[in-house]
Inverse folding.
């Protein structure tokens, strides 16, 4: 990663964590250059990357201002914002809505396309989730959880679907670490993933669709109950 790219990521992190809320101005190029011990050119390139994603906007003669996440036009920063511990409930719930559009259809397709090898992988990943829950291994639980969803995407037999899901799986890790540290959420996830697996084993697309809908509804409820409400 180049220095401007690295700095752009750091600035994005500061925006997401609330250091620079929507509507506020970033420090001047000179102030940022001094703060990060880099040249103004590097700062300019970093801010340019954020402008391309509409994370910030330039107001002539006034400075660089932060846009609200709803105005951002790139997927990666949106998912980072949604999985941040400080994310707003609207952004987090929008992420689950977007996942629902993709994953419910994928589960439906997987029910008729999956192979025995796919099912064996899902069983192994579910077993890993249970082992991780029993040993309070959050990292293993997160890895197995995301791997399970990746396998569902792969088992559709459609090369585009895993590519569409990839940014979600890659960037959901941080948010999953927070939610998966809660024992009740882990228990709910195991129950819901078991139902998805049984539905895929049955080969019934309607049952698989319902199982994924129920899982994501439980995910949204857990998010509100154990994360968002506690932040409030």
């Amino acid at each position: 990663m180049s220095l401007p790219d690295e700095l752009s990521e750091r600035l994005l992190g500061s925006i997401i964590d609330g250091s620079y809320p929507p509507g506020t101005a970033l420090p001047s190029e000179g102030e940022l250059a001094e703060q990060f011990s880099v040249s103004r050119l590097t700062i300019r390139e970093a801010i340019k990357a954020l402008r391309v994603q509409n994370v910030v906007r330039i107001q002539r003669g006034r400075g660089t201002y932060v846009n609200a996440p709803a105005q951002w036009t790139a997927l990666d920063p949106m998912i980072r914002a949604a999985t941040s511990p400080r994310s707003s409930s609207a952004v987090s719930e929008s992420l689950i809505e977007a996942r629902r559009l993709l994953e419910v259809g994928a589960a439906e397709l997987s029910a008729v396309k999956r192979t025995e090898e796919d099912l064996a992988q899902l069983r192994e990943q579910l077993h890993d989730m249970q082992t991780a829950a029993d040993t309070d291994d959050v990292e293993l639980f997160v890895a197995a959880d995301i791997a399970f969803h990746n396998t569902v995407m792969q088992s559709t037999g459609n090369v585009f679907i895993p590519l569409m899901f990839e940014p979600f799986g890659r960037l959901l890790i941080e948010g999953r670490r927070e939610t998966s540290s809660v024992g009740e959420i882990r228990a709910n996830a195991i129950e819901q993933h078991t139902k998805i697996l049984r539905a895929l084993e049955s080969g019934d697309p309607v049952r698989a669709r319902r199982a994924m809908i129920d899982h994501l509804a439980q995910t949204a409820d857990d998010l509100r109950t154990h994360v968002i409400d506690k932040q409030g």
